[in-house]
Design brief:
The complex is a heterodimer of chains A (124) and B (130).
Chain A (H helix, E strand, L loop, with lengths): L4 E5 L3 H13 L4 E5 L2 H11 L3 E5 L7 H9 L9 E6 L16 E5 L6 H9 L2
Parallel strand pairs in A: 1-2, 1-3, 3-4, 4-5
Chain B lengths: L8 H35 L5 H20 L3 H18 L15 H19 L7
Helix pairs in contact in B: 1-2, 1-4, 2-3, 3-4
The chains are: A alpha/beta (124), B mainly alpha (130).
Chain lengths: 124, 130
Protein backbone atom coordinates (compact mmCIF):
# COMPACT_ATOMS: atom_id res chain seq x y z
CA UNK A 1 0.00 0.00 0.00
CA UNK A 2 1.30 3.45 -0.91
CA UNK A 3 1.76 5.87 1.95
CA UNK A 4 -0.24 9.07 1.55
CA UNK A 5 1.63 12.35 1.33
CA UNK A 6 0.04 15.49 2.69
CA UNK A 7 1.32 19.05 2.41
CA UNK A 8 0.59 21.15 5.52
CA UNK A 9 0.67 24.90 4.92
CA UNK A 10 0.60 27.29 7.86
CA UNK A 11 2.60 30.40 8.75
CA UNK A 12 2.48 29.45 12.46
CA UNK A 13 5.57 27.33 13.14
CA UNK A 14 4.10 25.58 16.17
CA UNK A 15 0.79 24.69 14.54
CA UNK A 16 2.62 23.43 11.47
CA UNK A 17 4.75 21.18 13.65
CA UNK A 18 1.78 19.87 15.63
CA UNK A 19 -0.16 19.08 12.45
CA UNK A 20 2.89 17.38 10.94
CA UNK A 21 3.50 15.21 13.97
CA UNK A 22 -0.18 14.35 14.31
CA UNK A 23 -0.56 13.32 10.68
CA UNK A 24 2.69 11.36 10.70
CA UNK A 25 2.30 9.59 14.01
CA UNK A 26 -1.43 9.12 14.24
CA UNK A 27 -2.26 9.02 10.53
CA UNK A 28 0.89 7.23 9.44
CA UNK A 29 1.33 9.55 6.45
CA UNK A 30 4.31 11.33 4.98
CA UNK A 31 3.99 15.06 5.63
CA UNK A 32 5.54 17.93 3.72
CA UNK A 33 5.33 21.46 5.08
CA UNK A 34 5.30 25.00 3.78
CA UNK A 35 5.21 28.27 5.70
CA UNK A 36 3.50 30.38 3.04
CA UNK A 37 1.18 30.17 0.08
CA UNK A 38 4.00 30.86 -2.36
CA UNK A 39 6.12 28.09 -0.85
CA UNK A 40 3.11 25.76 -0.95
CA UNK A 41 2.68 26.33 -4.70
CA UNK A 42 6.35 25.52 -5.29
CA UNK A 43 6.32 22.40 -3.11
CA UNK A 44 3.04 21.16 -4.60
CA UNK A 45 4.38 21.53 -8.14
CA UNK A 46 7.59 19.70 -7.27
CA UNK A 47 6.24 16.97 -5.00
CA UNK A 48 2.64 16.40 -6.10
CA UNK A 49 1.24 15.53 -2.67
CA UNK A 50 -2.02 13.63 -2.34
CA UNK A 51 -3.68 16.52 -0.51
CA UNK A 52 -3.09 20.00 0.92
CA UNK A 53 -4.09 21.13 4.38
CA UNK A 54 -4.07 24.89 3.88
CA UNK A 55 -4.29 27.72 6.39
CA UNK A 56 -6.57 30.48 5.16
CA UNK A 57 -5.24 33.65 6.79
CA UNK A 58 -1.58 34.03 5.95
CA UNK A 59 0.45 37.11 5.09
CA UNK A 60 1.14 37.54 1.41
CA UNK A 61 -0.60 34.79 -0.52
CA UNK A 62 -3.55 33.67 1.59
CA UNK A 63 -5.49 30.41 1.31
CA UNK A 64 -7.91 31.41 -1.47
CA UNK A 65 -5.06 33.00 -3.47
CA UNK A 66 -3.03 29.82 -3.06
CA UNK A 67 -5.93 27.71 -4.33
CA UNK A 68 -6.22 30.01 -7.33
CA UNK A 69 -2.50 29.69 -8.05
CA UNK A 70 -2.66 25.90 -7.79
CA UNK A 71 -5.52 25.95 -10.26
CA UNK A 72 -3.36 27.72 -12.84
CA UNK A 73 -1.02 24.72 -13.08
CA UNK A 74 -2.24 21.51 -14.69
CA UNK A 75 0.16 19.62 -12.42
CA UNK A 76 -1.43 20.89 -9.22
CA UNK A 77 -5.01 21.85 -10.05
CA UNK A 78 -6.38 18.41 -9.16
CA UNK A 79 -4.73 18.14 -5.74
CA UNK A 80 -7.53 18.15 -3.16
CA UNK A 81 -7.38 21.09 -0.76
CA UNK A 82 -8.77 21.33 2.77
CA UNK A 83 -8.88 24.71 4.46
CA UNK A 84 -7.67 24.93 8.04
CA UNK A 85 -8.90 28.08 9.72
CA UNK A 86 -9.87 29.62 13.02
CA UNK A 87 -13.62 29.67 13.18
CA UNK A 88 -15.15 33.08 13.74
CA UNK A 89 -18.60 33.09 15.30
CA UNK A 90 -20.03 30.32 13.14
CA UNK A 91 -20.28 32.66 10.19
CA UNK A 92 -20.41 31.13 6.75
CA UNK A 93 -17.94 31.88 4.03
CA UNK A 94 -19.88 32.50 0.81
CA UNK A 95 -16.72 33.89 -0.77
CA UNK A 96 -15.29 30.36 -0.69
CA UNK A 97 -18.23 28.72 -2.42
CA UNK A 98 -16.68 29.04 -5.87
CA UNK A 99 -13.36 27.59 -4.71
CA UNK A 100 -12.59 23.94 -5.49
CA UNK A 101 -11.93 22.95 -1.90
CA UNK A 102 -12.92 19.65 -0.36
CA UNK A 103 -13.82 20.98 3.06
CA UNK A 104 -12.86 23.05 6.07
CA UNK A 105 -11.32 21.92 9.36
CA UNK A 106 -11.72 24.55 12.08
CA UNK A 107 -8.93 25.69 14.37
CA UNK A 108 -8.29 24.96 17.10
CA UNK A 109 -8.03 21.38 15.94
CA UNK A 110 -7.56 18.25 17.98
CA UNK A 111 -4.21 16.71 16.99
CA UNK A 112 -5.48 13.29 18.02
CA UNK A 113 -8.36 13.33 15.55
CA UNK A 114 -6.90 15.49 12.77
CA UNK A 115 -5.94 12.58 10.53
CA UNK A 116 -9.36 10.99 11.01
CA UNK A 117 -11.02 14.23 9.96
CA UNK A 118 -8.82 14.51 6.87
CA UNK A 119 -9.56 10.88 6.04
CA UNK A 120 -13.28 11.51 6.34
CA UNK A 121 -13.23 14.60 4.14
CA UNK A 122 -11.12 12.96 1.44
CA UNK A 123 -12.87 9.59 1.54
CA UNK A 124 -9.56 7.79 2.06
CA UNK B 1 20.06 -5.89 22.37
CA UNK B 2 17.76 -3.84 20.22
CA UNK B 3 15.63 -1.46 22.29
CA UNK B 4 11.92 -1.95 21.91
CA UNK B 5 10.10 1.11 20.56
CA UNK B 6 6.59 0.76 21.88
CA UNK B 7 5.48 4.34 22.40
CA UNK B 8 1.84 4.84 21.66
CA UNK B 9 1.32 7.31 18.76
CA UNK B 10 -1.08 9.37 20.86
CA UNK B 11 1.49 9.60 23.65
CA UNK B 12 4.11 10.69 21.13
CA UNK B 13 1.84 13.45 19.82
CA UNK B 14 1.03 14.59 23.36
CA UNK B 15 4.73 14.68 24.11
CA UNK B 16 5.34 16.95 21.12
CA UNK B 17 2.43 19.13 22.18
CA UNK B 18 3.91 19.51 25.64
CA UNK B 19 7.27 20.38 24.14
CA UNK B 20 5.82 23.10 21.91
CA UNK B 21 3.26 24.50 24.34
CA UNK B 22 5.57 26.97 26.10
CA UNK B 23 6.84 28.39 22.81
CA UNK B 24 3.32 28.66 21.45
CA UNK B 25 2.14 30.43 24.59
CA UNK B 26 5.02 32.92 24.34
CA UNK B 27 4.24 33.54 20.67
CA UNK B 28 0.62 34.18 21.57
CA UNK B 29 1.61 36.59 24.32
CA UNK B 30 3.66 38.50 21.75
CA UNK B 31 0.59 38.61 19.50
CA UNK B 32 -1.46 40.12 22.31
CA UNK B 33 1.01 43.01 22.20
CA UNK B 34 -0.02 43.71 18.60
CA UNK B 35 -3.67 43.69 19.67
CA UNK B 36 -2.82 45.93 22.63
CA UNK B 37 -1.15 48.53 20.40
CA UNK B 38 -4.13 48.64 18.05
CA UNK B 39 -6.66 48.81 20.86
CA UNK B 40 -4.81 51.65 22.55
CA UNK B 41 -4.58 53.52 19.26
CA UNK B 42 -8.29 52.91 18.65
CA UNK B 43 -9.14 54.30 22.08
CA UNK B 44 -7.16 57.42 21.18
CA UNK B 45 -8.82 57.67 17.74
CA UNK B 46 -5.55 57.27 15.90
CA UNK B 47 -5.65 53.63 14.80
CA UNK B 48 -4.40 53.04 11.25
CA UNK B 49 -5.83 50.48 8.81
CA UNK B 50 -2.52 48.63 9.05
CA UNK B 51 -2.76 48.42 12.85
CA UNK B 52 -6.33 47.23 12.63
CA UNK B 53 -5.42 44.59 10.05
CA UNK B 54 -2.48 43.45 12.16
CA UNK B 55 -4.74 43.15 15.20
CA UNK B 56 -7.28 41.06 13.26
CA UNK B 57 -4.49 38.80 12.04
CA UNK B 58 -2.90 38.48 15.49
CA UNK B 59 -6.23 37.67 17.15
CA UNK B 60 -6.98 35.12 14.44
CA UNK B 61 -3.63 33.42 15.03
CA UNK B 62 -4.15 33.34 18.78
CA UNK B 63 -7.61 31.86 18.27
CA UNK B 64 -6.19 29.00 16.23
CA UNK B 65 -3.07 28.38 18.25
CA UNK B 66 -4.16 28.85 21.86
CA UNK B 67 -7.00 26.34 21.65
CA UNK B 68 -4.83 23.70 20.07
CA UNK B 69 -2.43 24.04 22.99
CA UNK B 70 -5.11 23.78 25.67
CA UNK B 71 -6.03 27.43 26.22
CA UNK B 72 -9.68 27.22 25.19
CA UNK B 73 -10.72 30.36 27.06
CA UNK B 74 -7.95 32.38 25.42
CA UNK B 75 -9.01 31.04 22.03
CA UNK B 76 -12.62 32.16 22.59
CA UNK B 77 -11.51 35.61 23.76
CA UNK B 78 -9.30 35.98 20.69
CA UNK B 79 -12.23 35.10 18.42
CA UNK B 80 -14.30 37.79 20.13
CA UNK B 81 -11.52 40.37 19.71
CA UNK B 82 -11.08 39.46 16.04
CA UNK B 83 -14.79 39.95 15.49
CA UNK B 84 -14.73 43.27 17.32
CA UNK B 85 -11.87 44.68 15.26
CA UNK B 86 -13.57 43.55 12.05
CA UNK B 87 -16.91 45.00 13.11
CA UNK B 88 -15.33 48.22 14.29
CA UNK B 89 -13.36 48.44 11.04
CA UNK B 90 -16.58 48.32 9.03
CA UNK B 91 -17.04 51.95 9.97
CA UNK B 92 -13.77 53.08 8.47
CA UNK B 93 -14.11 54.77 5.09
CA UNK B 94 -12.00 53.99 2.06
CA UNK B 95 -9.45 56.61 3.00
CA UNK B 96 -8.80 54.93 6.31
CA UNK B 97 -10.41 57.75 8.28
CA UNK B 98 -12.37 56.66 11.28
CA UNK B 99 -15.95 57.76 11.72
CA UNK B 100 -17.36 58.17 15.18
CA UNK B 101 -20.04 55.88 16.52
CA UNK B 102 -18.97 52.71 14.75
CA UNK B 103 -18.80 50.94 18.03
CA UNK B 104 -19.74 52.55 21.28
CA UNK B 105 -17.63 53.02 24.38
CA UNK B 106 -19.15 49.87 25.85
CA UNK B 107 -17.75 47.89 22.95
CA UNK B 108 -14.33 49.39 23.41
CA UNK B 109 -14.46 48.74 27.15
CA UNK B 110 -15.50 45.16 26.55
CA UNK B 111 -12.66 44.65 24.07
CA UNK B 112 -10.24 46.09 26.63
CA UNK B 113 -11.52 43.68 29.28
CA UNK B 114 -11.32 40.72 26.91
CA UNK B 115 -7.74 41.58 26.02
CA UNK B 116 -6.83 41.78 29.72
CA UNK B 117 -8.45 38.38 30.30
CA UNK B 118 -6.70 36.96 27.26
CA UNK B 119 -3.34 38.17 28.49
CA UNK B 120 -3.99 36.81 31.99
CA UNK B 121 -5.09 33.44 30.62
CA UNK B 122 -1.96 33.12 28.52
CA UNK B 123 0.20 33.95 31.54
CA UNK B 124 -0.83 30.64 33.07
CA UNK B 125 1.05 27.62 31.76
CA UNK B 126 -1.26 24.86 30.62
CA UNK B 127 -1.26 21.86 32.96
CA UNK B 128 0.48 19.73 30.33
CA UNK B 129 3.11 22.32 29.53
CA UNK B 130 6.71 21.23 30.03
Amino acid sequence: MTTRRVLVVDDDDMLREVAKVALEMVGGWDVLTAASGAEAVRVAAAEHPDALLLDVMMPGMDGPSTVAALGQDTGTRDIPVIFLTAKVGGEGHPEWEHLPIIGVIPKPFDPMTLSAEVTRLLGW
Amino acid sequence: MVPVQSEDPDDAVRSVLRGLAASARQANLTRTGVIEDALRARAEHRVTPEQRSAAVSAAHQVAGSAGTFGHGRASALAVSLEQWFKRDGDGVDGEGSERDGVDDDDGLTRARRELDELWADLQEPHQDEE
